[in-house]
Amino acid sequence: MLIEVVTRLVHRVRPVGGPHKAALAYRVALRRDSGEGGRSLLTLIVVLVARTACAQAAPTVVPSQFEIAGSWAPLATEDVQNDSVPVDYLGLALTDEGRTRALAYDESQKSMIERQCQGWGAAYAVLGPFGLRISSQSDPATKRVVSYTIDAWEDWMGMTIWMDGRPRPSENALHTQAGFTIGRWEGGALAARTTHMKVGFIRKTGVPLSDQATLDWRFFRHDDLLTVLLVARDPAYLVEPEIISKSFRLSKVPLDFRDPCVPGFEGREPGDSVPHFAADENPFLDEFIKLFHLPREAVLGYRETLYPEYRKKIKDTYVPPPPCTEDCGVSGNFVRRRGPTP
Asked: What contacts 171, CB < 8 A, 6 or more positions away?
């Protein structure tokens, strides 16, 4: 009799029914079995089966975790791309080699057929103009999250955040545009670190990141807002970490930016030389400096310009540009002041 009841019980507490059916089956079984010893044994079996049903029905919800999967649209009030003018390294602390490589970069490189669909590196998740479409992948047996995937865009390769504790590859393992990212829940945020990236950029204007760079991420959620904090470190090209934050709002409409990249002729033939400048002959070197009367060391990303003391240093010598008389208004990330109306 006991075996028959337990068999029926296991059938009733499959994941479809969940723990509520398990409890109901236990009460039914108690009514059918009057033996004290059988009741004790039955109680143990039912508890074990009910716990299994609970574990299989859904993953455990930890208070410090939140639902990150979904479509997240960028806030229109933020612009962290800093790509309005070719030479703008404000807020960066570059090594001499990093500055030289940035000044040698010519954006016409992207017109080469072999580079048009090359895509951008992992940091472009916050540097680019698009939103985030995040999905989760779970182990079918344990229902635990194995990874989160941020889907690719037309010019970005996407990124997978592994959550299953797998080891990081060898330093000599394959490096890709997306890199290799391991994540964990930490203090109410999703924390992750990306390594194994190909040589890329921290800004679209050519500021480089080496294949030794690391990216540390923090994803914070406040109601329907998702804030992503990125800290980039690079022993080759950055003297200080580059810190970027960007916010997104949960979208009611699913986002999809996966249009295929189709290369085409943009003025350069296959096999043409790679466009570049001699670092000291970049024609845009003084454009931003003259436009806003900015100190050269600030525009070119010298370390001391990051700190408040530098503002005090130039306070008595800095002369703001005069109000503009034409082409006023928003110029990229910057607002040009219009003079008084005659």
From this structure: none
Q: Which domains does the chain have, with CATH numbers?
A: 2-57 (no CATH), 70-85+94-250 (2.40.128), 279-336 (no CATH)
Name the residue with tokens 């000044």. 103
Whole-number Å distance between alpha carbons of 9 and 25: 6
Contact present, 149 and 184 (Cβ < 8 Å): no
DSSP 8-state code for residue 211: T
The alpha carbon dihedral of 285, 288, 291, 296 has a sign of negative
* Tokens coding 206: 């050519």
Contacts of 291 (CB under 8 A, 6+ apart): 85, 321, 331
The reported pTM is 0.76
Two structure tokens written together for 136: 């989760």
Distance, C-alpha 85 to centroid of its chain: 24
pLDDT in tens, 158-169: 899 999 999 999
- Alpha-carbon distance of 6 to 9, in angstroms, equals 5
Question: What residues in the chain have per-residue pLDDT under 70?
Answer: 1-64, 79, 81, 326-342
Cβ neighbours of residue 195 under 8 Å, at least 6 residues apart? 168, 179, 180, 181, 214
Pairing assessment for the beta strands 159-162 and 180-186 based on DSSP bridges: parallel
